[in-house]
Amino acid sequence: MSTDFQKARADLGARLRELRATGPNGPLTGPQLAQRLGWAHSKIYKLENGRQTATAADLQAWAEATGQPGAADELKARLKSLETQVRSWRRQLASGHKPVQDNITAEHARTRRLRIWQNSLITGMLQTPEYARHVFTRYAELMQSPRDTEEAVRARVQRQQGLYDTTRRYEILMWEGALRARIAPPSVLAAQLDRLLGVIGLDTVQLGIIPFTTALKIPPGNGFWMYDERLVIVEDWHAELWLDDADTIATYARVWKALSESAVFGNRARGVINEARRALDQ
Predict the structure, then answer these.
(1) Are 62 and 55 within 8 A, CB to CB?
(2) Cβ distance 44 to 33 under 8 Å?
(3) How far is CA 126 from the centre of its chain?
(4) Is 38 left (phi over 0), alpha (psi -120 to 50) or beta?
(5) In the predicted model, what is the mean pLDDT of residues 177-187?
(6) pLDDT tens figures, 44-98
(7) Cβ distance 85 to 243 under 8 Å?
(8) Model's pTM, two decimal places?
(9) CA–CA separation, 28 vs 9, rounded Å?
(10) Is the separation of the CB atoms in 59 and 76 below 8 Å?
(11) CB under 8 Å to 39, separation ≥6 — which residues?
(12) CATH number of 3-84
């Protein structure tokens, strides 16, 4: 979780503490406010000290319980700003994977140069429908989210039409482990690797693979997507980070450069993919 996010949550907590201490009917202690809200006292402590992220309903209740309902809109605006940067999977997937895919599609539509680093599975921009189906199913099981697999697959495959738009540029790097991860049955993975071989040579796509045997200039790290020079999206198990400040984007640009210097392209990339393909037959 980023330092900026932590600071924003701590600032929100300080504002909540201020409201508790300056109510029109006098200050409330933490236990008094907790009793009024029907919450555990520990929740008051965690929210005020930036240890827990409030929900919009929490903020509305806090404003009303401290006798300052007019502050609710301000508090919710702070929360919205905070969530713009860190988007928890729990909240994003509350309605399934399709809305998440639609949000990403909107960012793709605005982008002319997309740089993708993926270290654990085939990137969504190059997934076959059957491979994508297995990926969405696995994540729905993990996150205990609604099953809208077919709608999510259709949205992902439709986004791949951008690969044939000559006004766009896709620079994709993958760790060799992504080629070999058995997230799907061997027959599905074999078809997926064949798909990668077919992508090499598209004039809109530069596909690089970092082999296991290559000396690395930087550890592989998490997957990320760079949308032109305006946005980086980083995936973690609990959330996506949407990062748009110039210094952070510059950092990821340096990471991208270091990773690309370890990658192989063209026929050498084909060789790595073919080795992974032959391993399935064995």
Answers:
(1) no
(2) yes
(3) 17
(4) left
(5) 96
(6) 999 999 888 898 999 999 999 999 999 999 999 888 777 667 777 887 888 899 9
(7) yes
(8) 0.74
(9) 21
(10) yes
(11) none
(12) 1.10.260.40
Domain boundaries, the chain: 3-84, 96-281
Amino acid at 14: A
In this structure, are residues 259 and 211 in contact, taking their beta carbons and an 8 Å threshold? no
> Which residues partner with 113 through β-bridges?
169
Question: How would CATH label the architecture of 96-281?
Answer: 2-Layer Sandwich (3.30)
- SS3 per-residue string spanning the chain: CCHHHHHHHHHHHHHHHHHHHCCCCCCCCHHHHHHHHCCCHHHHHHHHCCCCCCCHHHHHHHHHHCCCHHHHHHHHHHHHHHHHHEEEHHHHHHHCHHHHHHHHHHHHHCCCEEEEEECCCCCHHHCCHHHHHHHHHHHHHHHCCCCCHHHHHHHHHHHHHHHHCCCCEEEEEEEHHHHHCCCCCHHHHHHHHHHHHHHCCCCCEEEEEECCCCCCCCCCCCCEEEECCCEEEEECCCEEEEECCHHHHHHHHHHHHHHHCCCECHHHHHHHHHHHHHHHHC
**Token code pair at residue 199:** 């992508």
Q: Do domains 3-84 and 96-281 have the same CATH topology?
A: no
Question: Which residue type, as a one-letter code, is found at position 37?
Answer: L
Nearest to 33 by CA among 51, 49, 16: 16
